[in-house]
From TrEMBL:
The organism's place on the tree of life at top rank: Bacteria
A Gene Ontology term for the protein's cellular component: cytosol
Protein's name in the database: Bacterioferritin
UniProt cross-references to PROSITE patterns, sorted A to Z: FERRITIN_LIKE (PS50905)
Keyword set, alphabetical order: Coiled coil, Heme, Iron, Iron storage, Metal-binding
Length: 149
């Protein structure tokens, strides 16, 4: 993900934003599914924790779909596949991995937006990167305190 970007076309940016959009839809499905599957003594808290992320990921998805159409592209309607997890800890680990990969994608997208001179998009992506970083950090804190169940 650390490749230097020299020339970026609008088509490449649209393709990248569609990849981001597929992963925002993935995040929505992932959080809704994990909220339903959380189990045991931690269920009430985890259910609320996962459900709380859904409106923010939906807001990211709506932003991306709007931006893709503004650039003349066609927004994807397909979520990237969601990995099922068989324990609360496995779900939190899957969430952490997804958020880390999402941040890396947005950092790359921010570079592309900057190379294209779309500073509005740079600013919007920075705000989304802050949201995803908060998701990642909250998940890390939870993982420090949860057992193997
Ligand atoms: Fe998101
Ligand atoms: Fe997120």
């Amino acid at each position: 993900m650390e490749t230097e970007i020299k020339t970026v076309t609008r088509e490449q940016l649209i393709k990248g934003l569609n990849e981001d959009l597929a992963h925002e839809y993935q995040a929505i499905v992932m959080y809704a599914t994990y909220a339903a599957m959380a189990s045991g003594i931690h269920r009430p808290f985890l259910k609320e924790f996962f459900e709380r992320e859904i409106p923010e990921e939906l807001r990211h998805a709506q932003f991306l779909a709007n931006k893709i159409t503004a650039l003349g592209g066609l927004p994807t309607t397909k979520p990237a596949p969601v990995k099922l997890a068989d324990s609360n800890r496995a779900m939190l680990e899957a969430v952490l991995k997804a958020e880390e990969e999402t941040i890396a994608r947005y950092v790359q997208r921010r570079k592309q937006a900057e190379a294209l001179g779309d500073y509005g998009l740079v600013n919007d992506l920075e705000e989304i990167i802050s949201d995803e970083t908060r998701h990642k950090e909250e998940t890390e804190k939870l993982l420090r305190g949860i057992g193997e169940h």
